[in-house]
Write a structure and sequence with these properties.
The complex is a heterodimer of chains A (about 160) and B (about 70).
Chain A (H helix, E strand, L loop, with lengths): L2 H35 L7 H30 L6 H31 L4 H39 L3
Helix pairs in contact in A: 1-2, 2-3, 3-4
Chain B lengths: L2 E3 L1 H8 L3 H8 L3 H8 L8 H11 L3 H4 E3 L5
Antiparallel strand pairs in B: 1-2
The chains are: A mainly alpha (about 160), B mainly alpha (about 70).
């Protein structure tokens, strides 16, 4: 892995992180506007704002995990058990974000109804989140196998 | 480990210091110590080849199988 790739990826991750932060600032504004347009869901503005901010926070935590993994790659320590913990954390962040989105969509459907758009959004969160988590778990298996191979090879003289 | 590395014997026979042996074979002193102490778990054929070359011997002169004590 070239250092140029890592540097550019870090640069883009900073942009994504900043964009996510901007999104966190916008969530309550958009929720307040919706509350003004539809007064019947006014009581949901605060809890759904919190859910939105929390979901984006999960994304940001995932970015931090990727950052840590990039540091390990740069130090040529990616094939150590420490890397697995960051991968675990990354999968957990993805799962948590998807869970928050799906639960919020489910809650809205149960209490207020919301039409096909909300159903689709809930399913999309579950499918995309599930795909991300399972893909990460699969790649974690590859990393674990590579770590075991590396450890075995290190004992060959 | 039932496979014994008789490096000490061969080094003594050739009257070769460990440091000289390590540098001529291209091994780190730490790895030579691992070989001598019998803690080695695997050895590359290329390493074995260089050891045989430097010590002018056969693999059988260095490696020996000992039945494990029951």
């Amino acid at each position: 892995m070239t250092s140029a790739v890592i540097t550019w990826l870090r640069f883009l991750l900073v942009l994504v992180f900043a964009g996510a932060f901007l999104g966190q600032l916008l969530v309550p504004v958009v929720a307040r506007e919706q509350g003004d347009v539809f007064p019947e869901v006014e009581h949901l503005v605060v809890p759904y704002s919190i859910a939105g901010i929390a979901a984006i926070a999960c994304l940001q935590a995932g970015i931090v995990c990727v950052w840590a993994l990039l540091t390990l790659i740069g130090d040529a320590r990616i094939f150590t058990p420490r890397a697995l913990r960051w991968v675990d954390a990354m999968a957990a962040c993805g799962g948590a974000a998807a869970g928050i989105c799906a639960l919020t969509a489910g809650h809205l459907l149960m209490t207020e109804g919301g039409g096909p758009g909300i159903v689709l959004a809930g399913f999309a969160a579950m499918v995309i989140g599930g795909t991300f988590v399972l893909l990460t778990v699969a790649m974690r298996g590859l990393l674990a196998a590579a770590i075991a191979d590396r450890a075995e090879l290190a004992e060959v003289i | 480990m039932p496979i014994v590395v008789d490096l000490d014997v061969m080094l003594a026979r050739r009257k070769m210091p460990v440091g000289t042996f390590a540098s001529r074979v291209g091994l780190s002193p730490a790895n030579v110590a691992v070989l001598k102490n019998g803690r080695a778990k695997a050895i590359r054929f290329t390493t074995l080849e260089r050891i045989c070359e430097v010590l002018d011997c056969q693999p059988g002169d260095i490696l020996r199988w000992e039945p494990e004590d029951a």
